Known about the structure:
Elements: E1 12-15, H1 17-21, H2 31-43, E2 48-53, H3 66-72, E3 80-85, H4 88-97, E4 101-107, H5 110-117, H6 121-138, E5 141-147, E6 151-152, E7 156-157, H7 160-172, E8 178-182, H8 189-199, E9 208-212, H9 219-228, E10 233-236, H10 256-265, H11 274-282, H12 295-300
Parallel strand pairs: 1-10, 2-3, 3-4, 4-5, 5-8, 8-9, 9-10
Antiparallel strand pairs: 6-7
The structure holds 3-hydroxy-3-methylglutaryl-coenzyme A and magnesium ion (MG).
Amino acid sequence: MSERIRPGERVEVTEVGPRDGLQNEKVVPSTAAKIAFIEALVDAGARQIEVGSFVSPRWVPAMADSEAVFAGLTRQPGVRYLALVPNQHGYQRAVAAGCDAVAVFTAASEGFARANINTTIAQSLSEFRGLAAQARAEGVAVRGYVSTVFACPYDGPTRPEQVVPVVEELLAMGCYEVSLGDTIGVGTPSHVERLLDAVLARVPAECVVMHFHDTWGMGAANAWRALELGVRRFDASAGGLGGCPFAKVATGNVATEDLLYLFANAGLETGYDLAKVARAVRGLAGLLDHPLASRVHKALGPV
Ligand code: HMG
Ligand code: MG
């Protein structure tokens, strides 16, 4: 059943570009360039931003400088600076670096859990339960991710019934919201509807975030369907950068600029300045091994 989208409503867009966007780049911008990118995105309006990840630097070399990125940031009040962590070791590193919140991540499919974090879904949830209890005691907020919510590059299609219990587990252990990842970007509005019918029957929409990758160009259409179904939280990556080293078919995340354009034209409030996001992306020009092919830069002209 669709809900009316009312102009003036607030939509939260979490900026994941500095982590999901850059983790897969072959040529990685310097620590200083990452810091400039993050600060520019915060200046553009990001109020929750994923700064980096505290994973094995052997597995994801592009995020090896996350401590230095946190150390070099000039922080702004009212902004939640997030760090992605796979385990207790990552949690300790993230807290020592000064993050405001950690994001734990697992999957709806065993094949991806094994490839991405070298464990089973059940083992990852058990690790996160201990981590979340410690975080609660230490006043650190915890966010959850469930990957491969529509399909897995190893196991094939994912059923909504595989997703729902993982979301419930993450919320039960204290995650303030859970992001549902279309890791390989194969979902369509029909997939979104099937999944959200199942998820929103069990958990409040305020706790649900949609995280789209744009392999088939469906990211904005998927976000619109999720909006119609009552979701008001989205992840996005400036410039549409992104991918996952453990899902080779994944392309970039849905671009922050595309979602902002969609939401602004529906009269929704995000607090972002689209031209400033485009300018933040321009700051990466020449620092990657590919041109930044964002449509937005053509549409906006010089920003
Ligand atoms: P493992 O090799 O099974 O771990 O990796 P281990 O516990 O056997 O440890 C092996 C070595 O790694 C040890 O060092 C540990 O100390 C070290 P050694 O004794 O060999 O010198 N280690 C660590 N070092 C630094 N930080 C840590 C850490 N943990 C262990 N936190 C592990 C397991 C989870 C660490 C590994 O699989 C890993 O790092 N995976 C990275 C996964 C990743 O970052 N994937 C991309 C992000 S997820 C994503 O993109 C999806 C998302 O966007 C949503 C979506 O789109 O669906 C979130
Ligand atoms: Mg992702």
